[in-house]
Amino acid sequence: MTFTRHFLDDTTAIMAEIRVDDVEAVVQTLCATRDRSGRLFLCGSGGGAGHASHAACDFRKLSGIESYCISDNVSELTARINDDGWDTSYANWLRVSGIRSGDCLFVFSVGGGSIDPPVSVNLVNAVRLACEVGADVVGIVGRDGGAVRTLSTASILVPSIDQKLLTPQTEGLQALLWHLIVSHPSLATNIAKWEGLDAGVGS
User: Fold this and answer.
1) C-beta atoms surrounding 87 within 10 Å
2) pTM, to two decimals
3) How many whole angstroms separate alpha carbon 203 and alpha carbon 196?
4) 187, CA 20 to 30 Å: which among 28, 126, 138, 177?
5) Alpha-carbon separation of residue 184 from 24, 102, 189, 193 (angstroms)
6) What is the pLDDT of residues 130-173, one digit of tens each?
7) What are the backbone dihedrals phi and psi of residue 184, each rounded to the nearest 5 degrees, phi first?
């Protein structure tokens, strides 16, 4: 079997195991955030930070939710890392933003983070702060879900079948899943550009 065939077959097998109820729970949590005029804060590290930036755009534009990506301001992020350290950088950003009950934190992480051993502690501290102030937490995570899966209001677990493909499969399917979420009829208040053109909107 070629690597390409194996990767695609692995993807299909993983998708078959994703729990639809988990996806719907994340959708409903985000709907509740919008209904109460809460804000959505998105974060991740590495590929997860890329997802957070892209998703913040789409949740604002397509779902009408006031949304922000924690790592989009590189000047502030690097200043916080330089002066205060990586582990507190996201949580301190959220404190200045006044995260509060009614808001929601959306986390993208391959392993969900942990304190012991210390992995993605910046994400764990952000989740802990959100929980402390009564904000909801949602996430899309791989492996066993880690701290995000344990502490979140709702989360989606991307199962791992071939451990050698854990990171690329988790990050790839995170993109698919958050696009599913932002396109969900319960959240999609605006039509995307190309779909609008195909429907004759704005032509």
Assistant:
1) 17
2) 0.94
3) 8
4) 126
5) 9, 21, 9, 16
6) 999 999 999 999 999 999 999 999 999 999 999 999 999 999 99
7) -60, 135
Alpha-carbon distances of 198 from 5, 179, 184, 188, 195, rounded to whole Å: 33, 19, 19, 17, 5
Can you give the residue ranges of every domain in the chain?
A: 3-188
Residue 41 in 3-state DSSP?
Answer: strand
CA distances from 8 to 46, 51, 59, 174 (A): 23, 21, 28, 16
Place of tokens 């994703």: 18
Number of residues written out for the chain: 203
**Cα–Cα distance measured from residue 185 to residue 87, given in angstroms and rounded to the nearest whole number:** 37
Place of tokens 């809460």: 38
The amino acid at residue 81 is I
